[in-house]
Amino acid sequence: MRAFKPADIRGIYPTEIDDELVYFVARAFVEEFGFKKVVVGRDMRLSSPALYDAFVKGVTDSGAAVVDIGMVHSPVVYYASGTMNLPGVIITASHSPKDYAGLKLVFAQAIPLTESTGLRKLRRRIEVGKFAAGLKRGKVTSKDVLKSYQRFVLKGYKAKKLEGIKVAADTGNGMAGVLVPLLQEKLPVQFDVLFPKLDGNFPNRGSDPTLGKHQKQLKARLQQKNYDFGISFDGDADRIAFLDENGTYVNSAVIGALIAERLIARNPKAKIGYTMLTSRSYEEAIRVAGGKPILMRVGHAFIKDAMRKKDVLFACEHSGHFYFKDYFYTDSVTLTLLEVLDAYAEARAGGQTFGEMIRPYLKYQQTEDIVINVKDKKVSLAKVEAYIKTLQPKSMRKFDGLVVDFGDTWGGVKVSVTEFALKLMFESTKKKAAKEMQSKIAAYIKTIANDSH
Question: Is 279 among the residues known to form the active site?
Answer without folding.
Answer: no
